Amino acid sequence: MINEEIRAKEVRLVGAEGEQIGIKPLREALQMAADLNLDLVNVAPQAKPPVCRIMDYGKFRYEQQKKEKEARKNQKIVDIKEVWFRANIDEHDYQTKLRNVVKFLKEGDKVKCSVRFRGREIAHASIGQKILERVREEVAEHSSVERQPKLEGRSMIMILAPKAQ
Question: Does the predicted TM-score (pTM) go above 0.90?
Answer without folding.
Answer: no
